[in-house]
Amino acid sequence: MFRKILVPTDGSDVSLIGALRALPLARLASASIAVVYVQDVYAFAGIGQANTAGRQRDMAAPRAQGTAAIDRICEEAKAAGVAFETLLVEDDQPARGIVSAAQTSGADLIVMSSHGRTGVAKLVIGSVATKVLALSPIPVLIIKAATGDDEG
To answer: Any bridge partners for residue 90, and if so which?
Structure first.
């Protein structure tokens, strides 16, 4: 079975759905979870190049959102009796950062959620989950997240 499950979050409600679904699986398998937030540094390239404080300031809000999501997932894991660790990764490609974190942490499963968009929406927006699935050498369980803003 699984010993460690990587649970990525971007701070969104959709990623929280996947994380919370991973907890009963981890408990059933007596596995721990590694909660990871990947800070996309590309969005801040060129900002504050001469001023590192400016770059750090601009990265602070997304990082705070990611850290808050990590804290929420860890609270739920603690309540469920699931051991956990946290990881903060900087990478300009979130999917690559997630797969790298899985390998570094020794995870043997990645559980994440996806909007499950199709057609043009999928082509335009892309899917981190799809990219993780393509890049990962370990199994990936993708939870289709139904939120209030989903169509049909």
So the answer is: 39
How far is it, in rounded angstroms, from Cα 143 to Cα 152? 17
Sheet holding 84-90, edge to edge: 84-90, 32-39, 4-9, 109-114, 140-144
Name 92's bridge partners: none
**Long-range CB contacts for residues 144-147, cutoff 8 Å, separation at least 24:** 144/113, 144/114, 144/115, 144/116, 145/13, 145/14, 145/17, 145/18, 145/113, 145/114, 145/115, 145/116, 147/13, 147/14, 147/17, 147/115
Q: State both tokens at 15.
A: 């990623």
Q: What is the distance between the alpha carbons of residues 50 and 52, in angstroms, rounded to a whole number?
A: 6
Model pTM score: 0.82
**pLDDT recorded at residue 148:** 54
Cα separation of 117 and 106, whole Å? 30
Q: How far, in Å, CA of 55 to CA of 114, rounded? A: 30
